[in-house]
Amino acid sequence: MDSEVTPVHTEITLVVNGTEHRLRVDTRASLLDTLREDLGLTGSKKGCDHGQCGACTVLLDGRRANACLALAVAHDGAEVVTVEGLARDGRLSPLQEAFIEQDGFQCGYCTPGQLCSATAVLDEADRGWPSAVTGDLSADPVLDDDEIRERMSGNLCRCGAYMGIVRAVREAARKTETEEARA
């Protein structure tokens, strides 16, 4: 029996941070490895490589996903936003600014995944999506500390910067609400 496996490659297209990329990938390659190795986008980190830590979190067609668990070929044509795509026109997003202001990181390894996940948290709350701890399912969720902790629970921080992360998400939500009220 031949123990050597011949890789199968296929052509896919990904729109990453607004730029279309046509790639030839091994059908076994994860989206994380494709982003890091083929596109040089090393912001998303390989932590556990089992979908348990959240260091690899990206936005995949607008929803957060663990890139280490997603096969690149399964997302042909998808839109992917990595931490590198959160800033606009050379300016950090309000969430990125809040992470800095509120000390939402220590070593920084988990921060890209935390930022992508927190971006999705703000979007989910804005859409009125409840979480497991949302008290009133008929009202828009309020991003209090319990809501934020629940929604961010898929992202681990070995340094324990959770208090700063919660403050940062709360601050970014407040800024977003203020900006929306002005518009």
TrEMBL record:
State if Iron-sulfur is listed as a keyword: yes
Which InterPro entries does the record associate with it? 2Fe-2S-bd, 2Fe-2S-bd_dom_sf, 2Fe-2S_ferredoxin-like_sf, 2Fe-2S_ferredoxin-type, 2Fe2S_fd_BS, Aldehyde_Oxdr_Iron-Sulfur, Beta-grasp_dom_sf
Give, as in the UniProt entry, the pathway in which the protein acts.
Alkaloid degradation; nicotine degradation
Q: Which CDD domains match?
A: fer2
Q: Report the GO molecular function annotations.
A: 2 iron, 2 sulfur cluster binding; metal ion binding; oxidoreductase activity, acting on the aldehyde or oxo group of donors
Q: Does the keyword Coiled coil belong to this entry?
A: no
Ranges of residues in domain 2Fe-2S ferredoxin-type: 10-86
Going by the UniProt record, its keywords in alphabetical order are: 2Fe-2S, Iron, Iron-sulfur, Metal-binding, Oxidoreductase
Pfam families per the record?
Answer: Fer2 (PF00111), Fer2_2 (PF01799)
> What name has this protein been given in UniProt?
2Fe-2S iron-sulfur cluster binding domain-containing protein
